[in-house]
Amino acid sequence: MSSNTLYDKVWDLHWISKSSGGPSQLFVGLHLIHEVTSPQAFAAIEEKKLKVKFPHLTVATVDHIVPTTNQQRPFPDPLAEEMLSTLERNCSIHKIKLHGIGSDHQGVVHVMAPELGLTQPGMTVACGDSHTSTHGAFGAIAFGIGTSQVRDVLASQSLAMKKLKVRRIWIEGALRQGVYAKDLILHIIRTLGVKGGVGFAYEFAGPAIEKLSMEERMTICNMAIEGGARCGYINPDENTYKYLKGRKYAPQGKAWDLAIRWWKSLCSDYNAIFDDEIKLNASAIEPTVTWGITPGQGISIKENIPNPELLPKNDQQIAKDACSYMDLAPGSPIEGTKVDVCFIGSCTNGRLSDLQEAAKIVEGHKVATGIKAFVVPGSQHVARQAELKGLHKIFLKAGFEWREPGCSMCLAMNPDKLDGRQISASSSNRNFKGRQGSAKGRTLLMSPAMVAAAAINGKVTDVRKLFKNSKFS
Amino acid sequence: MNQDFPAGEIKTISGRSFAIKGDDIDTDRIIPARFLKCVSFSALGEQVFADDRTELKGLHPFDLKENKGAKILVVNDNFGCGSSREHAPQALMRWGIRLIIGESFAEIFFGNCLALGIPCLTSSKLEIKRLQNLVKKNPKLIWVFNLQELSIINNREVFKLQIEKGDKEMLLSGKWDATKQLLQEEERIKETMQRLPYLNNFK
Q: How confident is the model at residue A473 (pLDDT cuts 50, 70, 90)?
């Protein structure tokens, strides 16, 4: 059993009680809600004549169903409009802060909360969205919950939960140029499998992790769930404090010093005990692309699509399904695979640095003929910052569309969808069958820079070949 | 569609059963994202596995006449992986599923099912295969699941199943309906809140 890890410390602090043999009751320090998984929870609260216990500990935004071409109300889709107005009504009745349409911070919930400084080390964060693991980047214990649990958190600011085991994933070395946090997490999931993390919290640590910016760390923790781990976290350090300082909801003045002292005490101790430990080396990782229908089906840009017969027995069936669904031939290189749509955005890779890295690749190039390419900033705040830096002009000049913030084609609950058998190069997090809005649509997951490279060449491309004076070209 | 949802103590479930084969069946397949645009779960039952069903043109297990009214689903490995949306278990429940037996379940999916009073039990790969073959061969068989004894039987076969002790207790005692349980700890919720530095010392 783990001890003295950040996970153990945060768990102990938020632990309320334990029923015999059952799960523990855990206090939730920050509850985030959005329009898709909250309406039924509010309905249940009202039905049971309960109240929202601590409205100030819940924060809302609207992201999943928002159109990204025009956010004018009412939305053309009456169902989307109904979901949004339901959220607005619920927030107003229960006095919950909503960063809604027209607010400076409307955006993907996992982009909005960190940029406002709402997410802080040592918190427990829950949200009705599996990518809540994102907030672990700050040394918070953050996990996705279902709608019944959203109801429970609204009613009691707590939920029933079992303690997870802790696996430390120690990453040696450093990512090389042209290799990003996205490649690292795709590599980790490929190595440990899509259910390798079931029952675990992942602690990401080691020299390669320490070098990552907060935005890169969010990309890593965001996809912990794709590896089966309900939460992933990184011990807070100077990068964390620097990111938080001065943000709207971060501690100020004297409180800041107190906070830092406490945050430092939360880190996993040098003699912490983990239930499992794994070591990987970042220096060996290449740009990584998924070829199949699970996020674990990733290969380096230099590899060929695997022959299912040659894979470990347990992986064969899903690999066969993937080959037939994706219509990609085993043995052929992933590099050069033609794409139709290029999507930069999502809670995984829709932050400023993601757009900056993609813009570096795009600058001076044009999107290949016939390719639909678009950028969806993660939040209004990201969009304004990017515009201040002129990034939108670089994208627009190259032939990308520059959209309004939302989840967009990551899960296609808004009008942004693949059509028919279209294949996308996508900076999002899931390549499941039908994920991007067409029942037969296909998704290749990769870093935003790799999506930019794919847009320029119209096919999957090693982004390093587009670097100026590239030694790879 | 069975709209008589689980309530209170869950001890036995009996009914017909059918199989959905395949590992890593994700929540987007169970209920494609475009059906999530709703403020109520009520219509989801009809949309369960919508895309897979369209593709199989009436031959999908959820469309076969002999499976209508069945309550028990037998699945393979890592069932329900993907999103935390409760829409997936809600869709299964509203179609009529009351018990799922499989090799393994994704964690959030398992918890969401538990919160609805739908037990998810596991067994070995070999046993699941045997069970899937049996229910396929004879979809009319009535199975009786007994949570206390961790078994599912018909008049000839017995299959032993597994679930963690704590989860079993929650289902047996009716405590899976969490809200009431959680609110009983009113005082301790407040105490916990008062000891959290970020809600007090440096707020």
A: very low
Query: Model confidence over B111-143: pLDDT tens digits?
Result: 999 999 999 999 999 999 999 999 999 999 999
In chain A, residues with a C-beta closer than 8 Å to the C-beta of B104 are 195, 198
CA-based nearest residue in chain B for residue A45: B179
Model confidence over A227-249: pLDDT tens digits?
999 999 999 999 999 999 999 99
| Beta strand extents in A307-441 (DSSP E only) | 341-344, 372-375, 401-402, 423-426
CA distances from B30 to A346, A432, B84, B118, B183 (A): 22, 11, 12, 16, 32
Q: Do A195 and B78 touch (CB under 8 A)?
A: yes
Residues 75 to 94 of B: which have CB under 8 A from any A CB? 77-78, 81-87, 89-90
In chain A, where are the structural domains located? 6-163+236-266, 289-466
Please choose, from the candidates A237, A191, A186, the residue with its C-alpha nearest in 3D space to the C-alpha of residue A348.
A186
Smallest CA–CA distance, residue B142 to chain A, in Å, is 31
**In Å, how far is A103's CA from the nearest CA of chain B?**
23
Chain B contact for A37 (CB, 8 A cutoff): yes
DSSP secondary structure letters along A52-110:
-S-GGGEEEE--TT--SS--PSSPSSHHHHHHHHHHHHHHHHHT-EEE-TTSTT-B-HH
Decide if A298 contacts A291 (C-beta within 8 A).
Answer: yes
State the first-to-last Cα distance of chain A, in angstroms, to the nearest integer. 50
CATH topology of domain A289-466: Aconitase; domain 3 (3.30.499)
The chain A residue lying nearest B112, using CA atoms, is A146
Q: Kindly list the structural domains of chain B, giving each domain's residue range(s) and its CATH number in brackets, ordered by start.
A: 12-163 (3.20.19.10)
A436 residue type, one letter = Q
Chain B residues with CB inside 8 Å of A129's CB? Answer: 83-84
| Between residues B42 and B96, the one the model is more confident about | B96
Give the fold, CATH level 3, of A6-163+236-266.
Aconitase; domain 3 (3.30.499)
pLDDT tens, residue by residue, B134-170: 999 999 999 999 999 999 999 899 999 999 998 999 9
* N-to-C CA span, chain B: 50
Same fold yes or no, A6-163+236-266 and A289-466: yes
Would you say the pTM of this structure is higher than 0.80? yes
Task: Say if CB B32 and CB A418 are below 8 A apart.
Answer: no
